[in-house]
Amino acid sequence: MLLRDVAVYYGGFRAVKDVNLDFGRREITALIGPSGCGKSTVLRCLNRMNDLVRGARVAGSITYHDQDLYGPKVDPIVVRRSIGMVFQKPNPFPKSIYDNIAYGPRVTGMKPGSMDELVEQALRGAALWDEVKDKLKQNAYSLSGGQQQRLCIARCIAVNPDVILMDEPCSALDPIATARIEDLMIELADRYTIIIVTHNMQQAARVADRTAFFTAEADATTGERTGLLVEYDRTGAMFHNPRDRRTEDYISGRFG
Description:
By secondary structure, the protein is α/β, with parallel strands linked by helices. Helix content is 34%, strand content 27%. It has helices spanning 39-45, 76-82, 97-107, 115-125, 129-132, 145-157, 175-188, 201-207, 235-240, 245-251, and strands spanning 2-10, 13-22, 28-32, 56-64, 67-68, 83-86, 163-167, 193-197, 210-218, 225-234. The longest helix has 14 residues, at 175-188.
């Protein structure tokens, strides 16, 4: 997936500008930066979730498999099928564990050989099968927060995406549940491209192959803050030898 000169507007306000990124296939990329720097805004551009925000507009180009994701003939629903998303707060449907997984394949018209097999595969892929295999008909809300988040990951992979977007997926979880999600991300990167927004520097250092650091600049006249990409590199280089002083200051905790 390739971003060139991407800017995002909400009405007349430019929230993000001049983003150029090339996400590696089957890698984990972390988007880091202080609050309000546009990293979640950029993430939502990648599967056209910003289309659902009134007044939002994306400039520049985002290409995926050499196709402009914002081209006039591109169906956003098809985009979201290939580029799934896991949100900050676990959001299982008010249905059974089984029906949470089966929902996506059913509504998208997938014709699996066996829905039972697909549900099991998705739950195994999210490292949840052994914990729920005997209670698939129970309501998903009966699960713990960490289990609910893994259920949401299973629901995402059930429709066989290429890319998984994660918007601070561990921010509402305890350290043990967070560690399980991080281990799961590393496992999933063997099959999927993963892009994660995180405020947790240690998490980015632990799981990400590459890291992009964003910051925000205030307009001298209006005071409005616009996000921009400062630096993008292999995670080891970003954390141990950043090229930009702003990156070093943020990672070291001097600001942000």
